[in-house]
Design brief:
Distance between the termini of chain B: 11 Å
Distance between the termini of chain A: 14 Å
Largest sheet of chain A: 9 strands, mixed
Strand content of chain A: 25-35%
Shape of chain B: elongated
Number of strands of chain A: 11
Helix content of chain B: 25-40%
Number of helices of chain B: 11
Largest sheet of chain B: 9 strands, mixed
CATH topology of the largest domain in chain B: Rossmann fold
Bound molecules: iron/sulfur cluster
Oligomer: heterodimer
CATH superfamily of the largest domain in chain B: P-loop containing nucleotide triphosphate hydrolases
Order of helices and strands of chain A: EHEHEHEEHEEHEHEHEHEHHH
Structural class of chain B: alpha/beta
CATH architecture of the largest domain in chain B: 3-Layer(aba) Sandwich
Number of helices of chain A: 11
CATH architecture of the largest domain in chain A: 3-Layer(aba) Sandwich
Strand content of chain B: 25-35%
CATH topology of the largest domain in chain A: Rossmann fold
Number of domains of chain A: 2
Number of domains of chain B: 2
Largest interface: A-B, 55 and 59 residues
Radius of gyration of chain A: 22 Å
Structural class of chain A: alpha/beta
Chain lengths: ~280, ~290
């Protein structure tokens, strides 16, 4: 079973919730994998201090021009939708960091002057932290596209485990890549005007994906009741509310988990999993 | 004309509230929301839209089933697994269909389809606006759900903002940047004069901040830092301040006025005279000094 944790904006406590859930499951003898899909800013490792056992570079195949064959016909630049290859009267220039690796130029070149080489954009790492299987991806600084790294992570997920996917924030392409084939999505929000605005976008997104989901209201007592009213109106399932507990915030600031520091939250997360389990089975 | 970009790595550190506060402190600035994923600045600024335009971030492919001969070429060529293969209900034919969400918009399938059975057209996937607010012009945007190319939308919004600033004689553009380190952030900061990073004294936020600092170094943009909620963990705040690579321009305290002001649709400066407002004013002075 794959459970994705997502939120419209960052900083709502996505990683904390994901890790607390993973930790509670693992200590109940359920085989659990935590996957940090927030490859632009992965944070899970700070809390888990995993031992990395395997790592693998992730690359995009980018064109390499053989100038002894190239006739400067311009076809490669014509097919490229991403302005990643330009043909001038004298030469062909490849902008490798704009290339999406679609292979169009490679296939279209009439004289086979194009081969493909790897442009490394990041890495995936697989390891263990206590009972939790750990996976994360990291986008290299200055590289623009994270979805290929998320794709590679997902190819390596062990199929029998309960998998907790810590999604990037937002509603655009990397998020879709992370959550699109999960069995359940937890949307995290805060009871503030920003929180509600971002939640509405997230709800619109998961409805398009047609995956069952529930709302978790974090720091549930900091704002107003607009988020509750919105959930009622839209008949959304509020699966858990966690109050603004300075103890949690301080534990978090040190890289510690709430369920390890403040035992009263263990049952909350156990119940949360029960609810999700039931929802997935229905 | 100068561009100041406020980013945070992950968001949720108070970045938008700080941008809104700057909006009420700046004398004559154009405001820009480049956090097109989670665009929230409009909630505080309550814009009146004056100009609206559609945005096409790229093209999408779709197969005209009547013209398709099920040769399978497109399926073989698509590197994004965006073409789905199934069997027709009578079992006689293989059907190929394109998954709109998975399609990267590369056009390779359409180019090579021997029957020319694939349409490849611009898809409208967002809108952008120029609006009036109580603090001046705001340029903002909305990207459709599950859409790609937020980087392109960010560049478009910035270009529009520069034009607005030139037309109105504004000296400064204040940009609420995108989270992360990928394409929308790169598009938010490239070519800007100054980046302010809003961080928090948590190990996670520091880690995010270090990644964005590397990014601004990579693009050679002068960068300063504001520690929000600095008193949440003073030990970590002290560590940040001691780091010689980091230029601290201000510290703001852990305070409920951020949320209270947000609920009233006000900036922290407007909300009331409070200690945080003073902290923000001194941050703003320092930022102005740095930008020069
Ligand atoms: S398509 Fe091939 S021959 Fe034509 S310009 Fe590109 S590399 Fe050269
Ligand atoms: S592989 Fe695709 S994106 Fe890259 S240069 Fe070739 S045509 Fe352009
Ligand atoms: S390449 Fe064209 S004809 Fe062949 S399966 Fe695809 S759409 Fe149909
Ligand atoms: S346009 Fe590119 S990504 Fe989209 S279906 Fe065709 S080959 Fe695949």
């Amino acid at each position: 079973m794959k459970i994705a944790i997502a939120s419209g904006k960052g900083g709502t406590g996505k990683t904390t919730i994901a890790l607390n859930l993973a930790s509670v499951l693992a200590s109940s003898a359920i085989r659990t994998t935590y996957v940090d899909c927030d490859v632009e800013e992965p944070n899970g490792h700070i809390f888990l201090n995993p031992e990395i056992e395997k790592s693998k570079n992730v690359a995009i195949p980018v064109p390499l021009i053989d100038f002894t064959k190239c006739t400067l016909c311009g076809k490669c630049s014509e097919i490229c939708e991403f302005n990643a290859i330009a043909v001038t009267p004298k030469t062909v220039v490849v902008f490798k960091d704009m290339c999406h690796g679609c292979g169009g130029c490679f296939h279209v070149c009439p004289v086979n002057a194009i081969s493909e080489i790897d442009n490394i954009i990041g890495i995936i790492e697989i390891g263990k932290s206590g009972d939790i299987n750990f996976m994360q991806g990291k986008l290299d600084i200055g590289k623009a596209f994270s979805p290929p790294i998320i794709r590679e992570l997902k190819r390596n997920i062990p199929s029998d485990d309960v998998t907790i996917l810590d999604s990037p924030p937002g509603t655009s392409c990397p998020v879709i890549e992370a959550i699109s084939d999960s069995d359940y999505i937890i949307l995290i929000t805060e009871p503030t005007p920003f929180g509600v605005n971002d939640l509405k976008l997230s709800v619109e997104m998961v409805r398009q994906l047609e995956i069952p989901f529930g709302i978790l209201i974090n720091r549930s007592d900091i704002g107003d009741d607009e988020v509750i009213r919105y959930c009622k109106k839209e008949q959304l399932d509020i699966i858990l509310q966690i109050p603004d507990d300075r103890e949690i915030a301080v534990a978090y600031s040190h890289g510690k988990l709430a369920v390890d520091e403040i035992p009263k939250y263990i049952d909350d997360f156990k119940n949360l999993f029960e609810k999700i389990h039931k929802a997935v089975q229905d | 004309m100068k561009e100041l970009v406020v980013i945070s790595g992950k968001g949720g550190t108070g970045k938008t509230s700080i941008v809104a506060a700057f909006a009420s402190l700046a004398k004559s600035a154009v405001l820009v929301d480049c956090d097109v994923d989670a665009a929230d600045l409009h909630i505080i600024l309550q814009p009146d839209v004056e100009h609206r335009e559609e945005f096409s971030g790229g093209k999408l492919a779709s197969i005209r089933q009547n013209d398709c001969t099920s040769c399978g070429k497109c399926f073989e060529l698509c590197r994004y697994n965006a073409i789905e293969k199934s069997t027709s209900p009578d079992g006689k034919r293989t059907i190929y269909e394109i998954d709109r969400i998975g399609c990267e918009g590369c056009g390779v399938c359409a180019w090579f389809c021997p029957e020319k059975a694939i349409d490849f057209k611009e898809s409208i996937n967002g809108e952008w606006f120029i609006s009036n607010t109580r603090f001046g012009k705001l340029v903002h945007a909305r990207l459709g759900i599950a859409e790609e190319n937020s980087g392109k939308l960010v560049s478009l919004v910035r270009t529009a903002a520069r034009k607005v600033a030139a037309d109105n004689g504004n000296e400064l553009i204040i940009i609420d940047g995108s989270p992360g380190i990928g394409c929308p952030v790169i598009a938010s900061i490239s070519g800007a004069q100054y980046v302010l990073i809003v961080t928090e004294p948590t190990l996670s936020a520091i880690h995010d901040m270090e990644r964005v600092i590397q990014l601004t170094k990579h693009f050679n943009i002068p960068t300063g830092v504001c520690i929000n909620k600095w008193d949440l963990n003073q030990e970590i705040s002290n560590d940040i301040e001691k780091n010689p690579d980091i230029k601290i321009l201000g510290k703001t305290s852990y305070n409920t006025v951020f949320t209270k002001a947000q609920i009233m649709r006000q900036t922290v400066i407007e909300y009331s005279d409070n200690a945080v407002a003073d902290e923000l004013k001194s941050l703003w002075e320092n930022v102005l000094y740095e930008i020069g």
